[in-house]
Amino acid sequence: MLLGLRSAEQLVLLPVFLWAWGTAAYGDWLRLLAAASFAALLDAGLSGYGASALHFARARGRQARHARLFSLVLTGAIACLALTLLVAAGVGALIAAGGAPAWLAPGTLALGEAGLAFALLAAAMPMPGLLAALAGPLRANGRHGAFLRGQVLVRLASMCGTAAVLGAGGGPAAAAAAMMLAHAALGALLLAATLRRHAPDVRWRPGWPEGREAARHLRRLPPFAMIAAAGVGTRHVPVVLLAMLGAGPAVLVTFAAARTLTGLLRQGVQLVAGSVAVETAQARAAQGSNASAALASQTLSRLWPLTGIGAGLLMGAGGLLLTVWTGGHAAPDPWLLAVLVLPVVLTVPFQIRSQGLAAANRARAIANAGIAHIGIGCIFALKLAGALPPAHLAAAVMAGFAAAEVLVYALSLPRKPPLAGAGGVAALAAVLFLAAWAAAYLAAGAASALIS
Predict the structure, then answer these.
(1) Where are the beta strands (DSSP E) in 147-272?
(2) Helix orientation angle between 289-325 and 2-37, rounded to the nearest 10 degrees
(3) pLDDT per residue over 252-296, tens digit each?
(4) CA distance 21 to 34
(5) Are 290 and 274 members of one domain?
(6) Which of 57, 72, 141, 408 is least surrounded by Cβ atoms within 10 Å, i.e. has the fewest?
(7) Same domain? 321 vs 280
(8) Same domain flag for 91 and 136
(9) Which domain holds residue 59?
(10) Whether 27 contacts 252, CB under 8 Å
(11) What's the distance, Cα to Cα, between the start and end of the chain in Å?
(12) What are the CA-CA distances from residue 427 to residues 91, 294, 304, 314, 433 (Å)?
């Protein structure tokens, strides 16, 4: 549900941003948003570790330990928010004073507006993760759905509030304030109400760790911090890298629009692979590895051809869709579409295996691959950006990340469970991809002729 709402939010808000602000101001917003998103890492893994520790302590009936952990996580969350506010205010003041690095300095926005927008965005970034950590008791009680419903309301409030601000002529600072109020204030109020109803024994009392207790908990944070860094980096490092390489607002807007559109295909693959991964883990536990391998192979035989069709449709008609969707603000680049779409098709088997690792509580292996993907992707991207024409800067950068993604996941993820008939399924997916591409290309050409 949240995945679908997030996709809908992206589809709805991007053209509204462009309509309200234009390409130049929205390009500034994209750079500020990408930089502010790294504030989510200031919790140093507390969100992931806290959610896991609270869930297991309560699920095992260790009430005293759960109460102690909740107080410690609450203290950590307060400290994290205080640190985030200091960093957000400091960097925001630096931007407002004109002292930000060139890649972060606003090109169109007033310095004060840009600094305030950054501070508000950065202040809100850790909140979703910290609230999810404090919701650990709900998952153990079988009431996690209540928390998710609250998050749906938060997303809707953020989307509607931002759209209302944009429609009323509000600038980046007002839009950032609407997002912060939804994710921070409304999110916290809904969590408190949900815990009071479904876990009334939980007490909101901060606690301070003693002696070795602090060291024991701190040692467990790094793996969770790596998982968070892999997620944030995969999404926002390319934008930062493009900005550092001198990409203008038009390039950033085209990149953001193309990645949002093609991201629907990637999210669909991850959603299917994730749901099947749970069934695969259950089949392995109940019937052994042969049953889980058969289920994974069956999923591949259906998901890969469907992904090929979706990728072909995006390749053939993506340019027209981008033009219509963004009102002409995004300039279609077939090379950019190609390097965004093709990795999704090529990595379907790896998605099935990586989601299986997550279901088996081996997310650290995925995080290691994600960190390697970002590091190698940056190296490849810088090499390609210097070798290809500036007009294709976004395509060059994403080609580097695409090559790194395929390479890293092919080499690092386990080859079990074996996927029977993968070669034949790959050939079928390729044929369907080409057929869908040709059909969509012809249809888009005919539609363009009618429109013009």
Answers:
(1) none
(2) 70
(3) 999 999 999 898 888 888 777 766 655 555 555 555 555 556 666
(4) 18
(5) yes
(6) 141
(7) yes
(8) yes
(9) 2-219
(10) yes
(11) 38
(12) 51, 20, 10, 19, 10
